[in-house]
Amino acid sequence: MEAHEDTQGSVLEVSHLCKSFAGLKAVDDVSFTVRTGEILGLIGPNGSGKTTLINVVTGLLPATSGTVTVDGEPVAGKKPHRVAHMGIARTFQTIRLFHELTVLENVEVAAVSMGHSRPKAAARARELLDDVGLTGSAEALGSEIPFGHQRKLEIARALATDPKFVFLDEPAAGLNEEESDALNALLTEIPVRYGVGLIVVEHDMRLMMKLCPRLHVLNYGKTITEGTPDEVRANEEVVTAYLGSSV
Ligand SMILES: Nc1ncnc2c1ncn2[C@@H]1O[C@H](COP(=O)(O)OP(=O)(O)O)[C@@H](O)[C@H]1O
Ligand SMILES: [Mg+2]
Fold first, then answer.
1. What's the predicted TM-score (pTM) here?
2. What fold characterizes domain 31-87+163-247?
3. Pocket test for ligand 1, best of 52, 58, 219 (most atoms within 8 A of CB)
4. Using CA atoms, how far apart are residues 247 and 232, in angstroms rounded to an integer?
5. Of 21, 48, 242, which is best to mutate to test ligand 1, by the most ligand atoms within 8 angstroms of its C-beta?
6. Which of these, 14, 48, 80, 175, has the minimum number of CB atoms within 10 Å of its CB?
């Protein structure tokens, strides 16, 4: 496979984003910037607003206030398919596959949804399955493959929409240490190979500290800090709120 040539690059800007549910501030004034080719880790305790933030950015939920832009173009307020066409893809914390379709068809559908012809979508799907190591399961049903493979399939599906930015919501959940290491290798490659910016939400700190040059930490919907893994590990507020003595 060839490395993606990203001569210009794009930038995703989340600015003062807020999302309230009946008075609960699930996302409270969060701002960050990601460029294509970068990996940003998004961490924080359960309930700190990570999934809600992804839901707002990808158009599943309206923002209460704040803006999201890709290269200066507003994303917030657009419907999910419009957001996808603007180059933002995601995976789900709870895997959402078409169980009755084959692994290959699951990826094809995503490519077709972006306007690719059936033959072009099929070719792209085969390429992506090869990249994530699922070629051997192409004809199996989505429901038949092991859980770890379903997670990879979700990533292939997100990539099939030709995104500029991909949000991964807990891609290592339920994986063992060996699978988590393999995922680390796969995710490390993605920004280079596809020229995308990755935003990874994950509790597996062993994975995150290796994978992410930069971590953005949330607690109760608010940003505590953003920094390198070393900076974050040394931040007392982060240790108290989230890391404890685990790293
Ligand atoms: N659709 C919803 N309606 C009401 N409250 C919600 C909804 N989605 C999430 N929340 C609440 O928002 C907060 C953040 O949740 P979530 O974004 O799922 O956190 P995380 O992904 O960091 O675990 C939690 O208190 C959760 O209960
Ligand atoms: Mg979540």
1. 0.94
2. Rossmann fold (3.40.50)
3. 52
4. 11
5. 21
6. 80
